[in-house]
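Annex B.
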Amino acid sequence: MRWSGVGIDEWWRNEQFWVIGGVSAHLFAVFQGLLKVLAGIDTNFTVTSKASDEDGDSAELYLIKWTTLLIPPTTLRIINLVGVVAGVSYAINSGYQSWGPLFGKLFFAFWVIVHLYPFLKGLMGRQNRTPTIIVVWSVLLASIFSLLWIRVDPFTSRVTGPDVLVCGINC
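Cellulose synthase A catalytic subunit 3 [UDP-forming]: predicted structure tokens.
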């Protein structure tokens, strides 16, 4: 950092904005490109003058309709918070041997949560509440992804070999 002239605060803000953009606007840009290429659906936008008044013909174009962009980061934050709680509770119930692998998972989950902190702070806004539709969709998607993760369960092996006690040493 010293050789580039970028302070740690500037670097950290840049990291946060990359994560927030990567899970919201960039993700939707990829979906939009896939829709255009695979399905032939063309999404258009209208370019208007910024000098337009708020009561004019194009006033509706200046309304912010970005709730769909807020759902993926909120879902990601919910999944990570639930993952932290579930991981710690599992480690408490399973004993000492499960704490080692948990630390890496907790580090990654906290890394994501801390990166999304300014997003959550901005989402709360002036009303001190998140729009209900964002909460509903985020909880629904987080539940679906959690259930899929539990069903897939990639960290356990499904292949079981013969038992040495049953067939002896010659299995």
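The mean pLDDT is 76. The chain has one domain: 8-44+64-152. Further annotation is deferred to the next reporting cycle.
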